[in-house]
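Contributing new records

If you add data, match the layout below exactly. Sequence lines come first and carry their own label; structure lines follow with theirs. Keep one chain per record. Anything else will be rejected by the validation script.
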Amino acid sequence: MDRIIFELHRAGIVLNRKKRNIAIKKSNSGGIRIHKPRKVSVQDDEIKDVLKEFKITNAEVFIRESITMDDLIDHLKGNTIYVPGVFVVNKIDLPHDPENIGRLRHHGRVIEVSASARIGIDELKEAIYQSLELIRVYLREKSGYVDTERPLLLKKGAVVRDVVRKISREMLEAFRYAILTGPQRKQNELRVGLDYELLDGDVMTIISKN
């Protein structure tokens, strides 16, 4: 597994790691100026050496969270993508070495399954759903009916505008406000605009100008 993860990294695919908050603004003079919190353990000289390897000699570097040198190099490459991964160990009903499975946990979440014995299948489905960072939004019709079987699936961080746009452009133009309720909402009802962020399980009623 170490070799597989290494080869993915070489191809620009990083598993189970978030993109770091790094910004580099190149300039024509002034050398390399680094702005970072005290908690960042990477030294300024190390950062400058890496930048010079990428032919950057004049720039302002903004590091807004703790990083490693790999994080900086991945940012400088410019073609790195960060994706979630779930490690699935099949045939768990047969004899196996627990130590091998334990070593896998260093890389991310491990799900033990058996297709024939139906072990861990539901856990695997939930793990895949969680790793995709999706949220479910349910629409309430004018009659009050909510279709709980067919939610809209959106990426985490989606706003009301994303739901309205999925319905139709005409609805977006006629939008007045939306009413939100949901298991993660403290208030019974929220009246919100197009740029309000949605949470998983929200129930939305769209009010139009017409």
